[in-house]
Amino acid sequence: MAETVLTNTGLDSFLDGAPERRDPVFVRAAEAVLGLLALRGADRGTGVPEPTPPLVRQLLVEDLPTFVYAPPGTLHAYPAVVGALAARFDGTLHQEVAQAVKDAADDFERAMTDPGNLTWHRWYASLLRTCGADLTDPEDVRRRLAALDGAPLPDGVHRADLMGRTALADVLLAEALTRAYVRDAEEPPPAGPLLTDHAVATGIGQVAAALQDRWTAAGLAEQLAGPYARFAPGPDAFPHLVLADALLDEHLDHYGDTAAPVPPPPAIEAGPHEADADALITAVEELSEEEFEPYGGEAPHLLYVAYRRGCSADSVARKAAEYEDWSVDPALEDLPVPVPAEASGPYTVPPVPELVRLLGGTELTEADRARLEGPARDLATVLDRLAATGLVFRAGDAFGLTPRGAGVVRYLLRVREVAAPDAAEVRAWAATDLVAAAGGWPGCVAAGVLADWLHARGDTAEAWSELLAALGTVHAGTADAAAVRGLFTVLDTSTAPPDALRGALRDPVIGAYAHQALRARGEASDLIQVRISARALFVLDALPAKKGPLESRRGAFDEAAAAWPGGSAALVRAMAAADRHETERVLGPLGLASAG
Fold first, then answer.
1. How would you class 407 by CB atoms within 10 Å of its CB: exposed for 0-12, middle for 13-18, buried for 19 or more?
2. What's the pLDDT band for 390 if we cut at 50, 70, 90?
3. pLDDT digits (tens, 9 = 90+) for 255-283
4. How much is the mean pLDDT over the chain?
5. CA distances (Å), 206 to each of 121, 177, 180, in order?
6. Burial 554-568, CB ≥16 within 10 A → b, else e
7. Which among 374, 373, 371, 355 is positioned nearest to 363, based on CA atoms?
8. What pLDDT is attached to residue 596?
9. Can you tell me the distance from the alpha carbon of 423 to that of 6, in angstroms, rounded to the nearest whole number?
10. How do residues 110-155 score in pLDDT, each as one tens digit?
C-alpha cells in the first residue's frame, strides 16, 4: 500500500479531519496527492505537504496524468483533495491554491483523459476496471488480466507510444524517489523521512512498483513485469525506433518542428506496421555496412524524402546527381517521374534527352551520362535492398514507397510525434491550416492536396474563396509569406468559379494573381481593382530568385521597373512595404532592397 511505502505524508491526520474520509474515491485521491506533493519536496513542517501553486500545477498537469489512473467520474476528487489540503494553512495560501487549481482545471482534465499520456499501467488499469475488476484486489487483477490476452489499444495509439510513455514514467518516478531519499537524508525533516532505509534497501524499483500498484491497480506492476510481460513490452521489443529517431532527425532538418506536417500519401495500405518497421530497420542497418558505400548510410534520408514528396516517384539518376553536387533545376527537383510497368531489372541511366528533362539545362552529353552511371548504380543497389522488404519499389529509373511502405513510414513518424496526417484528415482541415502546411510542401504535392481539398467541398465558389483568402493571410508579414502566396501558381484556376476569382481581385496579396488567372481564361478583369501591394508582389514573385546568374534577375527587375509608375525606386518601396522579407532575399543581392 502506498501509505506504508511513503511514510510521514500526514495522510492519517489529513483524513481524520476530512468529512470525506469514508469515501474511498476521496481516500484514493488523497493518497496520491499527498504522496506526490511530498515526493516533489513540498514542505511537511506542519505534518502534511504544503501545496504551493507551482507544485499544484505540476501535480495536476504532469504527475497525476503520468502515474495515476482515475476511473471516469472521479477526476473531481483530486482538485478537491488539493483544496481541502490548502484549507489547513493560514494566510492567503488557500486562495492562491484555489486560483492555481482553477487555472489548471482544463489542462488537468485534458491530460488525464488524453490517450497520448497513457502508460501500460494506466491503460491496463482502465481495461481491468471496464471488465469489472476490483482494482484493490491483486488476485482479482491477476485473474482479469489473464482474460485480456490480445486486448485492444486505444484509438490512435501504438504499442510504441505506450512503451515510451511507460519508460519515461519509470525514469521520472525513480528520480523523484531517489531525490526524496537523498533530500531527507541531508536535511531530516521534523515529520520524519518519506522512505525508510528498509524500503530503499529493497530497491527503488520495488518502491516504484508498489506506488504504481496503489495508483493504478493492485499487483499490476508485478504481473506486467512477470507472467504478463508480453502485454507491456519494453524498449527491446521495438528495434525499429532507431529508424524512427533517424526519420525524426530528417524531419527536424527539413522543418525544425515536429508540429509542421508532412504531406499525406495518396494511398496507405494497412499492415503489420511494427513487423514491417523491424524488417525495414534490418535492411537499413545492413546498408550501413562498408560494401554499400557511399549511399548505404543515406537510407533513412531516402525513406523520408520519398514520403515528403507525397510518395510520388523520384528519379534514381536525379537523386544521384544531387548527391554528386550536379546542378539540378529547382523547378524540376520535386517533380514526379513516370513509373514503368515492368519490374525492376539491372539499372541503367536514362538516355541524355531524359536526363535533360530530369535535371534541366541543355549542355548534358553522353560523357556526363557515363560519369553518372557509377553513382546511380550504387544508389540503385541501395534502393533495391530496401525494395526487398516490399516497402520500397524501384522500376527502371523510378523509385518510391509502396502504399504499405507509406503506412510504415507514417507509423514511424507518428511514434516520434511528427505530424503525419492521412488524406482524410487533411480534407477536414480548415483552409488556413491547409495553406499553412502546404506552403512547406513540394509544389506538385501541394497541388494535388489542394485540389483534393477543393474537390471534397464540391469545388464551390465558397470553398475557393475560403482557400484564396487563406493564401493572402496565412503567415502574412513573415519569411514564409512568399511560399504561401506562391501556392496560387499550383492551383488549376481554369475551372475555378469566376466569382471566387473576381472576389479576390481586391485582395492586397493575391489580387494580381487572380487578375492574371481571369485574363488567362479570356475573361474580363479590371486591373484598376488590383491594389498596388498585390501588383508589386506579383512582380516580385516573378523575378528569378532561386538560382541562376544575378544578371538575369537584374534584367527582369529593370524590365518591370521600366513599366512601373515612378520607376525602380517606387517599385522597390512597394515591394518592401508588401513583403520586406522576400524583397530583401530577392533584391538584397542586387543592392536594391533599400532603394528609394
1. buried
2. very high
3. 999 999 999 999 999 889 999 999 999 99
4. 93
5. 15, 11, 15
6. beebeebbeebeeeb
7. 355
8. 45
9. 50
10. 999 999 999 999 999 999 999 999 999 999 999 999 998 777 888 8
3-state SS record for 286-348: HHCCHHHCCCHHHHHHHHHHHHHCCCCCEEHHHHHHHHCCCCCCCCCCCCCCCCCCCCCCCCC
DSSP state of 528: G
Give the Cα separation of 167 and 461 in Å (integer): 51
Q: Are 593 and 587 in contact (CB under 8 A)?
A: yes
Tell me the residue type at 60. L
Element (H, E) at 170: helix 159-186
> What percent of the chain has a predicted confidence (pLDDT) above 70?
98
Reading the block at residue 594, the C-alpha cell is 533599400
In the structure, what pLDDT confidence band is assigned to residue 331 with cuts at 50, 70 and 90? confident
d(CA 319, CA 350): 13
Cβ–Cβ contacts within 10 Å for residue 527, how many?
Answer: 12
Instruction: Using pLDDT thresholds of 50, 70 and 90, give the confidence band for residue 593.
Output: confident
Beta strands, E only, 374-449 = 392-395, 398-401
Residue 375 and residue 236 in contact, taking contact as beta carbons nearer than 8 Å: no
Q: What distance in Å separates the CA atoms of residue 243 and residue 239, rounded to the nearest whole number?
A: 8
Q: pLDDT confidence of 2, banded at 50, 70, 90? A: very low
Residue 544: φ, ψ to 5°: -70, 100
Rounded to whole angstroms, what are the CA distances from 353 to 327, 361, 362, 365?
16, 10, 9, 9
Q: In the numeric block, which cell numbers belong to residue 67?
A: 502515474
Distance in angstroms (rounded) separating the CA atoms of residues 149 and 590: 69
Distance CA 418, CA 456 (A): 25
> In angstroms, rounded to a whole number, what is the distance separating the alpha carbons of residues 74 and 566?
71
pLDDT band at 46 (very low <50, low <70, confident <90, very high): very high
- pLDDT in the model for residue 1: 40
Which residue is listed with cell 510513455?
Answer: 165
**Sheet with strand 392-395: strands edge to edge:** 314-315, 398-401, 392-395
Place of cell 508498489: 210
Only one residue has cell 524524402, namely 305
Q: What is the DSSP letter of 349?
A: P
CA atoms of 564 and 547, how far apart (whole Å): 25
Identify the DSSP state of 59.
I
